[in-house]
Design brief:
Length: 254
Amino acid sequence: MDYMITTEQLTKKYKSFVAVNDISLHIRKGSIYGFLGPNGAGKSTTMKMLLGLTAPTKGSFTIDGKQFPADRISILKEIGSFIESPSFYANLTGRENLDIIRRILGLPQSAVEDALELVGLTEFGDRLAKKYSLGMKQRLGLAGALLGKPPILILDEPPTGLDPSGIHEIRNLIKSLPELYDCTILISSHMLSEIELMANDIGILNHGRMLFEGSLDDLRGYALQSGFSANNLEDMFLSMIEEDNQNRKQRAKL
């Protein structure tokens, strides 16, 4: 199988706290991979390692056939990212903020207008970023990730702050991107119903450890085999997390 991103026993420790514990991801080229877990499960930390923002304590990863850290710069040139709440220059317009990124990446001027159009911000491009609503800031962050149409997108909570109409628009945009320009998307979100509508494959993380990786159909099969409800992604996710938490408590008593 053709994988765009793979990790091998990826681990991140902060002194005695293990944030990410021996996780091995297999993200297929051209897929949308839903990366799920409760707060503090290690999702953002894993994404930051893939972006070189924090160094792994142990393990390795490969992106588009390139090895980190040896190929760090060439890896980063292929990735558009949106991690947690994006930051902007408040006294610059949305368009000017994107233009700074465009110039750093050496992209043509048209890249800014293309990105604004993709996320539905063209008419607000000349508004100061400090006057953007939370939803508009999220759209601007996504526009920054889409500049230059990178082959890999790493998106952490992109629907946050959007109204129902905006969530629908961004969901349809993200779903269209792999076919639109052959990209691979790693996306995390607590809006499980949205992930269920977008993702091809699912990875579930809890307390830094992988509980499951596979397709949605694989997850349904696993849930039924384990005696869990398989009505929807939320039910399956919550059942797996609850079982893992109970097992952890039992092990802690021993």
